[in-house]
Amino acid sequence: MQKIYVSQCNDYSVADVDKAVNFCMKDFVFGVKKGSSVLLKPNILIGRSSADVVTTNPEVVRAVAKVFKEIGCRISLGDSPAFGNLKKALDTCGILAVCEEEGIDVVNFDEAKEIDTLSGPISVYKGIDDFDYLVNLPKAKTHGLTGFTGAQKNLFGLVCGMKKSKYHLKYPNRYSFSRMIVSLANAVKPSFNLMDCVVGMEGNGPSAGSPRKLGFIAASESAPYLDLFVSNILGFKHDEVGTLDVEHSEHNLDVNVNNLNLISNIDPGKLRVKDFKKAGGFKLGGVMSLLKKYVSPRPVISVKCINCNRCVENCPADAISKGSKIPVIDYNKCIRCYCCGEICP
Fold this sequence. Notes:
This protein is an alpha/beta fold. The protein contains 13 helices and 14 strands. Helix 2 (58-71) links the parallel strand 2 and strand 3.
């Protein structure tokens, strides 16, 4: 049975986060040797304050880094934000200060190489194989396209910069895009996954939702089983999460959470969220997939729009154009990938 580590963590105080992270990593670190190189991959979708819960919290990153520092590892951290400069995004969310204080090297994912996956070649950060360990640090959030942003979806950040738009266009529906994410995750195989579930995001994630206190940290060597556990706690069925739907259908993922080997310092039942607000997206199949543009939820320009035109510049389908006051979406071109929602400030 797949091991899932779960620890109560009520807030982002150093003491609480350190305790939870050490509990979740206690078995994994036994096999890590002094001098090993570690790449931390948090969720740095865009540059937003940590209070907005768009990114992995800085104190979670710090706690994980301290575990590896005590062993004597060389630690780096990297990501490829959906928009803007990595260091600026890290500075805005508070992680850059952690890197400077803890001696963590910041790595820009600016050079790519192609790797073979079951979905075909995918361009990822060229230096990924230079590290002994890839440690995945996702944030528990909803997602308009895949349903849930967890461990597997966080690995899409290994794709360099605007190359992500190419894959949104190539895999325009929920199942094909999720299949590509699963193929990527299975190809890069993170060594360990630890998810920030202290305060997650509900509603219109992954960037426009609302903070929701969850009160725990969870970890596993298996990205899909970690996603299965956390999404189940939040009230998702496996087929409401695109990546889990693919894993179950094509890779025989056991979706019975009762078969997971939970190592926990709290009753998981007490963590369950009964009224967690999911994103607006939903599955389409068969004939309904042909009617997607008519019946599926679609992005809408908010009245709060500041007319920055990020969505215009980054829409994979070129479906958004400048308007007199706010951008205009051509829904005949829109592929419902929600990239515009991801980069909206």
